[in-house]
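User: Please predict the structure of the protein below. I'd like the answer in structure-token form so I can feed it into my own downstream comparison script.

Assistant: Understood. Taking the following sequence of 203 residues as input:
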Amino acid sequence: MIWKLIFSGVGGQGVISAGILLSEAAVIHENRFAVQSQSYGAEMRGGLSRADVTISDDPVIYPKVDQAHVLLCLHRKGLGAHLAALRPGGILITDRDEAPVTARVDCRQYEVPIITTCREELGSPRSANICLLGVLSAVTGVVAADSLGLAIDVRFGAKSAAARDTNRRALALGLDMGAGIRSEASAAGESDRRGRHATSARM
């Protein structure tokens, strides 16, 4: 199986770090293949930022993502720039407040209050990228939650226990929100909808 994902947002939101962490979780803790590439504007903050991640059971030849199975957006700039790269029937995960979707799209769409929840529960939106990974794991299962947790321990544990614990909490928040929206979608019968919840992603 192969997953092609695009993380998008603006500088300072950590979307590239999220792509790297997801790749590390797949390669180091699940013994799979992954390739990550990135692009960003010249601005330190506020410029368009993007990370492409391909995860596969077999070696990955091409690092860029042209037709994504999953598009994740933390800012409306990223949504506007990369929505066309999401394949029909894919999965769109956006921040409810920072990247609202106003047009009908042929995908399964989830708007989640990621940044607001991090601000309220953690006191800062800085870990919104990690929370986003939790939502991704719960909704798609692209990597296991335990693998992401181990990757967080490796990356942040060397810096400080506080950073590790904060990011672990952010991951747990995302997992809870992702599990909740999956349950709601199943109860509503998302396969019968069009536009906001359309067909399943084609793998």
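That's the full token string. The CA atoms of residues 27 and 33 lie 6 Å apart.
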